[in-house]
Amino acid sequence: MRIPLAGITAGVLLGFVLWVGFVDANRYLTDGYPRLALGSLRRSLDVYALGAVLLFALMELTFFLLSRRWKRPHAANAALWLLLATGAAVVSLRLSPWVPRAHSVHGALLFGSVSLAGMWLAWLAARHPRAMRRGAGLARRGLGGFGPAGAALLVLAGVNAAAAFVADPAPRPRLNVLLITIDALRADHLGVYGYPRPTSPNIDRLAGEGVTFRRAASQWPLTSPSFAALMSSTYGHTNGLIRNTAQRMPDRPLMLAELLKAAGYDTWAAVGNVNLARFFNFDQGFDTYQELWRQDDQRKTERITRAGLDLLKQASAERPFFLWLHYFDPHARYDPPKPFDQMFVGDRYFDGSWRVPLNGRQDQDLGGISSKVTLGREDRVAYYVAQYDAEIRYVDQQVGILLEALKERGLAGNTLVVLTSDHGESLGDHNYFFEHGRFPYDDCVHVPLIVRAPGEPRPGEAVRSPVQSIDIVPTILDLAGLPADPRAEGKSLRLLLRGEHPRGDLWDYAFTESGFALDYQRSITGERYKLIYVPDAGNRRIMTGRELELYDLEADPRETKNLIDERPEVAALLKRQLWRWMANGGPAAPPPAEVRVEGQAEEQLRSLGYIN
After folding, report:
1. Spatial strand order in the sheet of 321-327
2. What does the pLDDT look like over 463-479, one tens digit per residue?
C-alpha cells in the first residue's frame, strides 16, 4: 500500500515544482488568467502523480525479481534504475530541439557528461547496499506515510474539483472564431484588391460579406516572425523573433489560443508550414494541433481543408471554438495540381518576353531565379507568376469548401471569419525573384485582411486606414466580448469595421520590420505614403543606395520612384513618427533559443532554403 501512496506524494510534489516554473514562464497568474493557471496545475499534478505511481510500482516489481537472485537487491535495483534514468535522459536530450547535435563538440561534452555521471552514480549505488536499503526505507516511510500521502490526495482532489468548477460547464454563448491564413499571399493578386485574373472568386465572395482592409501590413515578411507578431500582438523587437525563420516562439507573450482557451474555447489548429511546428512552440494554447507540413505532397492544401472539416464536426453548441488553418500554398515552388496547373499560362495577361538568368545556388534570389524555386529550365518570369496565380486559385477553392461547410453546419451565423496572410511574395519586383523577407516593399509586406463578423454592419465595405497584423488578436477578443490583453501592442479594429474613422498616431500609421542584417530595416506606412529606413550599408547597396526611401503608394504602388528629395515635408513627418516608434520600443528582446532540427523537418527547411 505504501508504494502507490509514495508515488502519489512524489508525483504531486514534482508536479507542483514543474508547474511553478511553467506559470512563471507564461505569466498566467500575473496577467490575470487563473483559469489557465489552474488548468495547467491540474494537468501537471494528474500526469506526474499517475506517472510516479506507475514508476514506483515498476521499481517494486524489479526489486522483487532481483531479490530472488541477488543477495543485495536494494543496491542492484538502485543501480539498475539509475542506468535506466541515464538512458532516458540521453534519449530525451537527443530528441530535444534545444540541445546541440550529439556529434558536435558541445553535444559530445553534454551527452558524455550525462552518461558518465549516470554510470558513476550507478556504480556508487552498487557499492553501498546498506545506504540503498536505508534510503529505500526512508522513502517508503516518508513519502508513503499516511500523513504526507493523505495531504497529497487532498490536494489532488481539491485541484481537480476547483479546475472542474472554474471550467464552467455551460459558458455563455460567444462567437466561434475561424482564422484562415494563406502563406506568401500578396494582397494585389486577389480580385477584391483589383487583380484582373480570376484568382480568388471565393475569397472575393467572403470580402463581399465582410469588410476588406485595403492597407494591411505584415509585421515581418517571414513566416515565424510574422506569426509570432500576429498571434501575440507584439512587434518582433518585443518578442525577439526577427531576421530569420525556423525560430522558437518564446513563452513570455500570451498567444491568441491561450487567451481564448482561458475564456472557455475549444482550440484547434492544422498548419502546413514546417516553421509552425510544435518544436518551434507555436502550439501554445491549442487542444489539437495537427502538423500537416509532414505530409509533403502536392495535395497538402486539401489535407488542411479536410482537417478543418473534421474539426468542425466536433463543434458544440455548449462551447465556442477557435479554429486556425494555415495553408502553405502559394509558397514557392509554384507547382499547382491539376486542373489548376497551367491555368493562366498563355492567357491574355501572359507576356513571356521578360526572361532572367537561372542562378545555380539557393541563396541567389537577386537578379535571377534561385535553384530552390526553379521550375525545370523555365526562365520566363510570366510563367512563374501564372503558376503562382494558379496556386492562389487552388487555395481559393479550398477556402470556398470550408466556408460552404460552415453554412451547411449552421455555424456561419455565429462564426467570426478572419482571412489574412503572413507575408506577400516578390515576383521580380525590385530585382528580387520569388522570395520574401529581404525587403520591406509592398510586394512582400502588403497582405490581405478580410473580416466577416456576424452582426457587424457594412458588408462589402473597404477600409483605407493603415492597419497591422498585430491588430488581429485585439480585434478578435473585442468582437468575442472578451477583455483585452494588457500586453498587446495592437488595437481593436472594431471602430473601423463599423465605419468610424478615428484619427491619431494609433490609427494613422502601420510599422514593419524586415531584412536579414543585424541593423535591419524599419518602415512606416500611412494612408498614402510610405517611408523606409535602411540603416545597413549592405542593404542600401542592393536597394536604392539611400538611407531613407519615400514612396507615394497611390501614384506609384510598385514603389519604383524614391521621392525622398522631392517631398521633404512628407518625409520629415513620417521620419519623426518612425523615430518616435523606434524610441518607444524599449530594449530589444533577447534572441530566441537556438533550435536543433533533424529528420523530416530539417529536410523541408533545407529544401525551402531556410537553413543551409
Report:
1. 288-291, 266-271, 321-327, 176-182, 415-420, 449-452, 211-213, 461-463
2. 999 999 999 999 999 99
C-alpha dihedral over 361, 362, 365, 367, to 10 degrees?
A: 10
Q: What would the grid cell of residue 112 be?
A: 558524455
Cell representation of residue 575 = 521620419
Q: Parse the chain into domains and list their residue ranges.
A: 2-166, 176-498
Cα–Cα distance for residue pair 315/322, rounded to 1 Å: 10
Angle made by CA atoms 365, 187, 382, in degrees to the nearest 5? 50
Q: Judging by beta carbons within 10 Å of its beta carbon (0-12, 13-18, 19+), is residue 611 exposed, middle or buried?
A: middle
Helix/strand/coil for 552: strand
Q: Give CB contacts under 8 A, 24+ apart, made by 365-368.
A: 365/432, 365/433, 365/434, 365/435, 365/438, 366/431, 366/432, 366/433, 366/438, 366/542, 367/431, 367/433, 368/433
Q: What is the pLDDT of residues 298-344, one digit of tens each?
A: 688 999 999 999 999 999 878 899 999 999 999 999 999 999 999 99
C-alpha–C-alpha distance, residues 250 and 102, integer Å: 24
Cell of 539: 542593404
* End-to-end CA, the chain: 57
Is 528 within 8 Å of 550 (Cβ atoms)? no
- Cβ proximity of 44 and 18 under 8 Å: yes
* Greatest Cα pair distance in the chain: 93
Summarize pLDDT for 153-183 with one digit per residue, the tens: 888 888 888 877 776 554 555 799 999 999 9
Residue 32, Ramachandran bin (φ over 0: left; ψ between -120 and 50: alpha; else beta):
left
In angstroms, the CA 359 to CA 170 distance is 60
DSSP string, 397-419: HHHHHHHHHHHHTT-GGGEEEEE
Rounded to an integer, what distance in angstroms lies between the CA atom of residue 319 and that of residue 172? 8
How far is Cα 230 from Cα 474, in angstroms, rounded to an integer?
A: 10
Tens digits of per-residue pLDDT, 84-108?
A: 989 888 887 776 655 667 777 777 8
User: Strand, helix or coil at 108?
Assistant: helix
185 to each of 103, 328, 332, 410, 443, how far by Cα in Å? 39, 10, 11, 29, 9
Cell of 456: 457587424
Q: Which of 238, 214, 213, 208 is nearest to 225 (CA)?
A: 238
| Class for the domain spanning 176-498 | alpha beta
CA separation, residue 299 to residues 113, 174, 330, 425, 506 (Å): 46, 34, 12, 21, 42
323/43 Cα distance (integer angstroms): 23
> Cell 475549444 belongs to which residue?
266
Contact 187, 553 (CB under 8 A): no
| Among candidate residues 402, 406, 178, 411, the one with its CA nearest the CA of residue 317 | 411
Exposure of 84 by Cβ count < 10 A (0-12 exposed, 13-18 middle, 19+ buried)?
A: middle
